[in-house]
Design a protein that fits this description.
Helix 10 runs antiparallel to helix 14. Strands 1-2-4-5-3 form a 5-stranded antiparallel sheet, sandwiched between helices. The protein is built from 17 helices and 12 strands. The termini are far apart. The protein is about 45% helix and about 10% strand. It folds into 3 domains: about 130 residues, no CATH class; about 120 residues, no CATH class; about 170 residues, no CATH class. It has about 550 residues and is an alpha+beta fold.
């Protein structure tokens, strides 16, 4: 007990000491610039440790000393050499009589040939601007620095998404470059109401996190809560959007994802149009969307690109695959262990003949096969793609056949695990599919303990947990629980586009309910004239008019003279 109290006291002391150190560093960076060029450049070298990529170029403009400071690994050097430095040299000839630093500062702001320029008075803004890839201009006698946007670094080109397969739709995926991702959204959503709000998360990495939404459509309560949660994040670094996802979700102990993630811009734009909010993280090709529900993770973007009748069948098979991937192994264990009377006699005799040579019960058999399957899936994911596919397919065939021949597993169990594996890959959302794969093992334990009653108990507990979940205030089972009749057009079945004229109520539809104007988007089919009728109409129209003399054409097709 005393040891625990001593450890707790030491931990509290270290936390307070870390808070004091962080506060001192914050005060150190929040101080203003001195205006003395020599002092400011010396302080800058001390803070950045006289780094190898730190470039300080001293100039004289209008009789005043000016320093051009940048990190050459973060900026576009041709932009600095082609635009910034020549502009300062030309400005030197025009402001020869400039005596005050303020006048020189206004002249630089007015005549510098750059696109984006802003003033910074504090060291924190200057340092983070340099680390973001901007060029800083420091003037002697002026306690203000000008930051010029000239960032440029190596980035991956826009390519087809790798995780979310595209069957029909745009084949562009997000990249690790934040401005590129913002442009992919802006190009598809050309609305003046589209808003981008920037946050900096991470004490060390200072990662840019952008919140994208439509003003007047996204719920203000969701926006305010998201701003509060992003502002409360206090962590050393954010390297991927998964950090943000785990730090802002409502129920951290739940296995179900409460924040959506995608690498498809069309899906993000569709979510924004329904009232959701997107979170873009610099350095990550995955964009987060919220709030979400269970059914939005089962839908695929390709469902709305196909005809609505075809989408019915696709979604039914997908929901069936979800049920099979979760319950099929546990149903097999429960029926073969406790409920033999539910199996037809011929099938029961065949299963008994197969099970007679297996030395352990069906529960152990299914557990072993399930663990082997998960190991094969993980190996296929981690290996290089050409090798991983071959290892997964060949490994499954060889291990399955060898297990049956060695009487380590029955043929029926191999079939059950194979069907479960195929059904688990019908889910378009990787996060939800992984959760269902992990929930199979508890369901198998319940089936081996209590039979069908155990399966019903597991499903009931799962439904109770799902009904209690919230994603930024949105019920996880909405619009089924609570049941909203207007939102049933796009849950299990998808209504045609001319009938989906309302937005989801709980995700922003209360502020802007109508998606399209009712009654005008369904084209009324009319009667198209057949070719014979069209010919008679044209003939009757031209009857009584003098025919024009047609010019004869020669064998070559040209007009004869």
């Amino acid at each position: 007990m005393f040891r625990f109290l001593r450890c707790f006291r030491n931990l509290t002391h270290l936390r307070r000491q870390d808070d004091r150190t962080r506060a001192r560093k914050a005060e150190k960076y929040e101080r203003p610039l001195s205006g003395n060029l020599q002092v400011d450049l010396g302080y800058l070298r001390d803070v950045l440790g006289n780094s190898e990529d730190l470039v300080i170029r001293r100039l004289e403009v209008g009789g005043h000393r000016v320093a051009v400071v940048y990190l050459e690994t973060m900026v576009d050097r041709p932009t600095v050499q082609r635009d910034i430095l020549p502009s300062l040299r030309q400005l030197d000839r025009r402001v020869k009589g400039c005596t005050r630093p303020g006048e020189l500062l206004e002249s630089v702001k007015r005549d510098l040939a750059v696109g984006n320029l802003r003033e910074e008075f504090l060291w924190s803004g200057l340092l983070y601007g340099l680390l973001d890839g901007r060029v800083a201009l420091l003037l002697e006698g002026c306690n203000c620095a000008l930051l010029v946007e000239a960032d440029e670094w190596e980035k991956r080109a826009v390519m087809e998404p790798e995780i979310e397969t595209v069957i029909r739709g745009p084949r562009e995926g997000f990249t690790e470059d934040l401005p590129t991702n913002m442009s992919l959204i802006r190009r598809r959503l050309r609305s003046p109401k589209l808003r981008f709000e920037t946050f900096y998360v991470g004490r060390v990495t200072h990662t840019r996190v952008v919140m994208a939404y439509l003003e007047g459509l996204a719920l203000e309560t969701v926006l305010e809560e998201l701003r509060r949660r992003l502002g409360c994040i206090d962590i050393d670094g954010v390297l991927e959007s998964g950090y943000i996802e785990e730090l802002i979700e409502d129920f951290p102990l739940s296995p179900f994802p409460q924040v959506g993630r995608t690498e498809r811009p069309d899906k993000v734009v569709a979510d924004i149009l329904e009232g959701r909010v997107a979170i873009l993280t610099d350095g990550s090709p995955f964009v987060l969307t919220l709030p979400i529900n269970l059914f939005s993770q089962i839908h695929a973007p390709d469902d709305v690109y196909e005809r609505w009748v075809i989408s019915h069948g696709i979604r039914l098979f997908r929901f069936l695959g979800l049920i099979i991937s979760l319950l099929l192994p546990s149903l097999y264990v429960a029926i073969t262990t406790f409920h033999h009377e539910m199996i037809p006699t011929t099938l029961a005799v065949a299963l008994a003949a197969q099970r007679e040579r297996v030395p352990y019960p069906a529960f152990v058999e299914s557990l072993i096969m399930q663990v082997i399957f998960e190991i094969l899936v993980e190996a296929g994911l981690r290996l290089p793609r050409p090798i991983g596919q071959a290892v997964t397919v060949v490994g499954a065939l060889v291990i399955g056949e060898a297990a049956v021949r060695a009487n380590l597993a029955s043929a029926a169990m191999v079939i059950v695990i194979s069907l479960t594996a195929i059904a688990s890959f019908t889910n378009p959302t990787f996060g939800l599919g992984t959760v269902l794969r992990m929930l199979r093992l508890p369901m198998i334990f319940l089936a081996a303990s209590l039979g069908l009653f155990g399966i019903f108990t597991g499903v009931l507990l799962l439904l109770i947990h799902l009904a209690s979940l919230r994603s930024f205030g949105l019920p996880y089972l909405a619009p089924v629980s609570p049941f909203l009749w207007e939102d049933q057009k796009d849950v299990i079945f998808r209504a045609p586009w001319w009938a989906m004229y309302t937005r989801p109520k709980l995700e922003g539809g209360l502020r802007n309910f109508f998606r399209v104007k009712p009654g005008i988007n369904k084209a009324v089919p009319g009667r198209v004239k057949e070719p014979e009728e069209e010919l008679e109409t044209l003939t009757g129209r031209d009857r009584g008019r003098p025919k024009k003399a047609s010019r004869s054409r020669g064998p070559s097709g040209r007009s004869g003279g």
